[in-house]
Amino acid sequence: MIRAYRFxxxxxxxxxxxxxxxxxxxxSLYNGALQERRDAYRHISKTSIKYGGQSAQLKDxxxxxxxxxxxxxxxxxxxxxxxxxxxxxAFFRRVKAGQTPGYPRFKGVGHFDTVTFPKDGxxxxxxxxxxxxxxxxxxxxxxxxxxxxxxxxxGRVRTISxxxxxxxxxxxxxxxxxxxxxxxxxxxxxxxxxxxAHFLTTSGGEHVANPxxxxxxxxxxxxxxxxxxxFPKRTRQRTKKHRAAARKVAKLxxxxxxxxxxxxxxxxxxxxxxxxxxxxxxxxxxxxxKAPAPKADPGQPGGFLPNGAAAKAGLNRSILDAGxxxxxxxxxxxxxxxxxxxVAVDARNTSRTCPECGHVAKENRVTxxxxxxxxxxxxxNADHVGATNVLDRAGPVLCAAA
Length: 402
Description:
The protein has about 400 residues and is α+β, with helices and mostly antiparallel strands. The chain is built from twelve helices and 16 strands. It has two domains: about 5-175, no CATH class; about 190-400, no CATH class.
């Protein structure tokens, strides 16, 4: 089994400067390789440059600029070039599929935040023992950086990445051969219905409250964003006050993100600990949060009819604040590690189908919280009905697995 571990780094002031320089120089390498590809395609008869050709130039680049490029790991620089190559592969794949291409763009220093070392021991070293409180990661050009290792690492470390989030630094370890730590069976199965009023509702009728982390910090975040917007464009990224205002906004977003992830992990762990099988809806959150298409007004050229975009924007914000996709991903990973089973079922009409008679109608959903069947009169909480139907739809899958 493959797993990733994410730990907080605690670099010294000098190491933090070196880490920032490492990101800056890898960003410069990425942008230079992108510029070379653009120039070759435009000016040399649409010649395409691949990863192999650019990787072969690394030796000369390091010799020409030993202060900025020669001090870092050769393997990490190759990984940066592979990152660009993957971006171009995805671009051409989208072109062939008829999707919006999204040509690879140059990265600003503030947006290039990750450096990857493809192999433990090549430019980096994970120094840890099972009971070592002084865990460190050695990075070429930076030194031995102290790591806040809050849990043991299982399996074999394959790749090590260094990531910056605001003023914080993290290391991400990708490990394989991670053993499965199965939990004792409970004999319980459950269906869950994701929502906005409640984060989720189980088939047993239990509601988990939606913490709404973004809404809780909306006023503070809006104030910080308004302050950031007061700086004119010509002075942005040039003054200390603007950089401080940008860091404030990033800090608030980071806090919201960490709170949401912590809530998702704890909620998923509770479900995994109490149930052998968890059934959930197969949700397409990208489609659910898509803005409605504009409606042209036939009676007024150049005008548009109301399309409910304002109301939809509020719902989209609530769905994204709940983070359903992230939660379901965490739930699946924890289930695999604990030897549990998750089953994704079709989400259509789960809250409009009567669990008693099977009647499906839009009118069955009286309000956001009330369900009343127009055929048999069965009444219950709408989210509870949805969770019950999710569990019923998972029945055939569970029978086939048994």
